[in-house]
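PROTOCOL LOG
Step 1. Enter all chains and additional molecules of the complex.
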Amino acid sequence: MFANSMAGLALGVTLIGAAALADDITVDTAQGQVTIPQSPSPLAVFDLSAVDTLTALGVTVDGMPSPSYLDYLAPVAETAEPVGTLFEPDFEALARMAPGLIIVGARSAAQIEPLSQLAPTIDMSIWGDDQIGQVHARLAAYGEIFGHEAEASALANALDDKIAQAAAAADGKGNGLILLTNGGKMSAYGADSRFGWIHHALNLPEAQPGLSSETHGQGVSFEFLAEVDPDWLLVIDRGAAIGQAGEAAQATLDNKLVAGTKAARNGHIVYLDAGRIYVAGGGVQSMMGTLDELIAAFSDTDS
Amino acid sequence: MKGPVFTGLILLVLVGLSLSIGVASVTSGDLSVSLLMWVSRVPRTCAALLAGAGLALAGVVVQQAVQNRFVEPGLTGTSEAAMLGLLGITLLAPGAAVGWKMTVAACAAMVGTGGFLWLARHVPRSDPMLLPLVGLIYAGILGAALMWVAWMTDLMQYVGIWRLGEFSGIVQGRYELLWIIAGLGILLYVLADRFTLLGLGEDQARSLGLDYGQTRTLGLVMVAAITAVVVVTVGAFPFVGLVVPNIVSRWRGDNLRANLPLIAAGGAGLVLAADILGRLIVFPYEIPAATIFAVFGSAVFLWLLFAAPERRRG
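Step 2. Run joint prediction.
Step 3. Record the structure below.
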């Protein structure tokens, strides 16, 4: 009798397991293939580019970090539960929420171990090489997880169209240098860096090839800008990215050495919307927005 | 007078190097040489010289005031306090003029240094290493408060810039406040004898007719002002104020009036050398001069601790 009921219990457990498995799917993440339940709910996301892309797909984000910094994500932030900061999860808030899936990104990837103990956690960082390819991969994975495949492929096509448009606008317009300003200091970023996808998307030659791919770029001086003399200067103001009014990028670059560069003389210094590209870089909306800015800048010239 | 001549020559060579090394080419570029020199090279060289001289002088004043050779503005909470002040004004009035930011930073630095001097009164003098340790902990606590505020307000990287002094952002119009240091240096030279007496300790200094409290306060104000100017314009440089006065006194003894020019020149030369190295190692990019100096400075600090302890003063 006892043995029978144990067998029945074992069978039942196996059946439940099988039922759960039927709903599980395997998706590509930044840390390889991971099997997770389909259409998990509620959903906690510790990465603003992921929030960006998920929102674009029409997926409801139930928990996200605060502050969110980005105006266009403010409506999401209003309805979503705050679950800590970009770097530090609020484990108590998360435990109350009991998420079905947690998504981490570049800034929160270090927290994947402790978060995994609470709920299935996937790392959807967009970092390093081939970021545009990664954006496509994440988009496809999100589509699969939440059953929004049609929206995902529509967005992927829209992104490809925008990239083609930007490449056409930048074609034959010379080289460029991506510069991040932070207070009065500057660093330059190359094609392998976190902002390097701009070079790839636009087929924009690097004004200074060989910049390393360090997270915080390469410290450079104004003399460096004068000597490299780029045709285009794409400026990201880190202070503005996190909503901090300080020494603005324009003030930093306002000197005779910068004024002598081709970029400055031809009015080709492009101040990108820093919050978008710095905080949510790799998000589909963020990327399309940045591409729109670049298309506008590169089209608005006859040089 | 061999020493000063030797030091002067080295300084001249360094200045020459600094003026001739840069990313832009002096001989072949499209830039006019005079533009390059006046907008970039000369300001950068002056900034390194002034910051180095100022920090070394601030170090010597602090050392006299607490009668301990192993302290400097970075080990007395002065830099951290200046940064706290700077962070405060950045949060409350982000658009404030540089002059105001500096004033607030200087006032905060003064309060911070005052706190250290108060602590110093209560630290037993039996072991000369005790005071630097207390200073280290005090600076650590202020630094932790700074980090906490920066963390809460997402200004970590911004504060990171002040903690790591460098000169890559220096061009004409961005460093002129540092000339205040030149003025303070001259004042210090005029008052050198007073500060020598200060170094004898309160009882002896008073019996020799020194207004001890007033001189000490004056020293505190000077140290705070120098530290604030340097932090606001180029960022903090640890070890300069510690290493330079110690090297000079090992070499030349303790005549403050004779040593002050050497201490100023030594600080100026070492910081300029660190900046030149930082520009060369990863040319055409840059490594912060403070990083270079910290490597050198920690080595010298260890040497000071272990190699020749017989000349310490309690």
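Step 4. Note key features.
The interface with chain A takes residues 22-25, 29-31, 35-36, 39-40, 90, 94-95, 154-155, 157-158, 161, 166, 168-169, 171-174, 279, 282, 284-288 of chain B (CB under 8 Å).
The two ends of chain B are 30 Å apart (CA to CA).
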